[in-house]
Every structure is written in structure tokens, then in C-alpha cells.
Amino acid sequence: MSILSKGEKTRADIVEVAKELFYEHGYDGTSFSQIVEASGLHRGNIYHYFKTKDEILHAVIDLRLQEFRQVLDQWNMRYTDPRERLRAFVAMIADNKTELVNYGCPIGSLNTELGKDRRDLQKRARELFDLFRDWLAERFAELGHKKDAEPLALHLLGRAQGIAVIAHVYHDPKLLQREIRQVESWIDDR
Amino acid sequence: MSILSKGEKTRADIVEVAKELFYEHGYDGTSFSQIVEASGLHRGNIYHYFKTKDEILHAVIDLRLQEFRQVLDQWNMRYTDPRERLRAFVAMIADNKTELVNYGCPIGSLNTELGKDRRDLQKRARELFDLFRDWLAERFAELGHKKDAEPLALHLLGRAQGIAVIAHVYHDPKLLQREIRQVESWIDDR
DNA sequence: GTCTATACCTGGATAGAC
DNA sequence: GTCTATCCAGGTATAGAC
Lengths: 190, 190
Description:
homodimer, Tetracycline Repressor, domain 2, DNA-binding
């Protein structure tokens, strides 16, 4: 356990609460009052840590980047075979099917929302895609796809996004499972 | 040209303007004032035709359904080969790459937004997916895929959505083109 | 069928006591 | 570092004159 001062813990609590709310209701769909209620803190106190709602979003993206980096590191440690590593990526999707079906992909839906009118923020959120793209590209490079590692990574990311969108639209975990199986055999063929 | 009374034309103008705004800024991201400004009408007048903003959205979905039905009918008339018809579907994506890169898929992004917090409205918006799913399934049935026509249709829809999301996130029409080519050869293999 | 004025609420944000 | 009170802009929606 890391040692957090009182203020650091409060700040982390706000970000954690905001992360969940932004995912479940969208960024614009989450009001400051909702963050206030869900955190059990008071308006003024939250503004003590963040000057604007946008700043909270930046902190949420930082947190997600940090969490995903940890996950990727764990996969790298747990598996040595590049195909095993890629399979860990698709397994994550299957493991999160309930949330995906209910709220869509946390990364994709955030980027889709911000991409409409807030390109500045979307650019920031895109880093989440970059993180996975780069990690996946490394895996394809390990498999010998020196030249088209990045196209393959983006293809796989796209497949994952498409599955998440359709599964969300139809609220259907079976559909997600079925499509995931196809992606797995696609990986086996690379 | 169909004959529209003055009131019918005003109503159609509102829906057309709202369709564009909802696509470019999202449903929640579009304010009533924006519709007022873009239409050149006045608040009260718009409320004369629609009691709520939700009602406008319903009308927009109706319009989109109508427009897409026309497009699908045209493809059915223009092509007889099922593969040709499927290729018309993917050609539409390539033809709209500029808008897709700027605002995402009009159907997908709407469903993603509404799916977060407004399931009632999302259910309505889902009809747009159903329209394409059913049409695509018919085409796969024509190709002899009697049993798995619908899974194939949903797979293709998912591929299209994934491509739209990634192309939007990275604002990259080349990426879209590259992925579309893969979907084309996937169709050739069915 | 068109337009003006306005009600009412919730949004994000601030000032300042404790 | 915490909390209360409040501001102001903007949101949707309504009433009613023309």
C-alpha cells in the first residue's frame, strides 16, 4: 500500500468516483453535483483540488493510463509468447462483457463523445488508444510482422471497438463472445 | 417534388437542421438555441411543431430511417448480385470518409451516446442498426448462408463500426480506406 | 402559424467563513 | 483542508400577443 496524505487520498477518491461516473453517464452527462453526491464531499472541497471539470477529466485519463500500463506490464511478465500476449488482450474484453454491454468501451465511448465537439480533450483521450496501439504493434513485431505491425495493431483495435459498439447497441454478451472467438482465430492465423 | 404545405415544409426544415446538428455535435451537445439559430426560425415556432427536444430526435430518426430505406432500395434495384450489393454497403463508408473522420458514424455515435443514460431513446435509435442488419442478412442468405445470415450481418456491421471509430479517433481517411479494402476481400471470401 | 417575453431549473464556478 | 452560500450563464419549456 502506498502512503497517501489526507489530501492525496481525497484527490484520488474524487478521480476514482469521476472515472466511474464518466464511464457510466458520459463526460457531459455527468454533472458536478453527481460527483459531489457520489464522493460524499462538498462542492468547495472538490474545487480545492480541481479548478475545472476538464481538469478532473485529465486526471481521470491519467489514472486510466496508469492502470492500463500496469495491466500491460503484467501481461508482458506473465506471458512470453506474443500470441499469448495478444490473447490476453482479447480475454480482457471477454472478461468485461457485462460492463461493455451496459456502457460500451470506456476508451472508445469517451473518444467518440469528445471527438464531436471537444477535439482538444479528445486528443488527450486518444493517448489511451495510443497506449494499446503501441503495445499491440510490439507484439505483432515479435511475431515477425516488422513492416505492418502498426496497421495490424490498428486493425485489432478496430475489431475490438466494433465488437464493443455492437454488443452495447444490442445489449448482448453472447454476440460479444461469438465475435471474440473470431478475433482469437484471426490472431492464431497471424 | 412532393407537395408540402407551408407548415409541413417548416417542420421538415427543423428536422433536417436538427439531423445535421445532432450528428456534428451530438444530441445532448446540441442546444435548442442552436436549432433556433440554424433554422432561422423562432423558439416558439419550433415548439409549435415539437413539444420537446426528444420529439425532434424521434423525427430525426424517422427521417434517417426513411433516407436509408431509399438507399437500400436503390442498391437492390441497381445490383442483382448479392456480392455487388454488399460492396455497395462498404462503398458508402468509403464515400463518406470525410464526415466519418470528422464526426464518426451517424448511427453508431448516436447509439453510443444514448446507450449511456437514455436507453429508451437508444432503443429507438437501434432501429437504424436493425434496418442494416436485416438488409445485410438478406444478402448473406442470397449467398447461401441460410443459417448464419444474421451473425454474418452483425459481424459486418461491427467491422464497419470499428473502422468508423478508429478513423474518427485518429482523424485518418487513409486508415479507413485501408481497412475498407480488407472488408471488401472478406466479402469476396463469403 | 409566427414571434416575444419570460419562467424555471440546473449547469459550472467563486468567495470566503471556519 | 473543509464546508456554506451564492452567482451567473445557459439549458428546456411555456404563455400568450399578433
